[in-house]
Design brief:
The protein has 179 residues and is an alpha+beta fold. Helices cover 39% and strands 22% of the residues. The protein has helices spanning 2-42, 121-124, 149-156, 158-174, and strands spanning 48-50, 65-69, 81-84, 93-102, 107-112, 131-132, 136-144. A hairpin with a 4-residue loop joins strand 4 (93-102) and strand 5.
């Protein structure tokens, strides 16, 4: 079966392989454009995130996919579940707003994980007393339970990530054109 596909690839020649490669690149470019459009519509640098820890249980569990929006002129309210990112830390954090102060120029927030004993000031804010609105990536609007485990598995086992990407690439390369 695989040998027949390689024979078909050899039969395509250089131009056929180049055409298949360009098809693959157009799929990648289309995906990137859709992601950028979603970022613009939601006003969020990362409109879809995966929960990586159990700090928000029972509201969200590890592996849940969260859909975010970041309305520019709407202040965050107590109880809103936000995703924020501290400069210098690579991973965004999903926690609930427990205190809010609005100044003339910005909104200051204090957050806490539902499953954590205390607020986030000491362990997560890197010396800051409050989060500023510029640190917030977005507010959770919806979620899909457990679907993000695929992402967690690919991060925990890099070989799986390369195997899946390789399989997708091979599939796109050998897929037959129907006229």
């Amino acid at each position: 079966m695989l040998g027949a596909e390689f024979a078909r690839l050899r039969k395509l020649g250089v131009l056929g392989l180049l055409f298949q490669g360009l098809n693959f690149l157009s799929v990648i470019a289309s995906g990137m454009m859709m992601w950028q459009a979603l970022c613009l519509v939601t006003n969020s640098e990362s409109p879809i995130v995966v929960v990586l820890s159990g700090s928000m249980e029972p509201a969200f569990y590890r592996g849940d996919i969260l859909f975010l929006t970041n309305p520019p002129n709407t202040p965050y309210a107590l109880g809103d579940i936000t995703v924020y990112k501290i400069p210098g830390q690579g991973i965004p954090i999903v926690h609930r707003v427990i205190e809010s102060h609005i100044t003339n120029t910005t909104q200051l927030l204090l957050t806490k994980g539902d499953n954590n004993p205390g607020d986030d000031r000491l362990p997560l804010y890197e010396g800051m007393q409050w989060l500023e609105r510029r640190h917030v990536v977005g507010k959770v609007q919806a979620f899909l339970p457990y679907v993000g485990y695929v992402t967690i598995a690919m991060n925990d086992f890099p070989q799986l990530k390369y195997a899946v990407l390789g399989a997708i690439g091979l599939f796109l390369l050998v897929q037959k054109e129907h006229s």
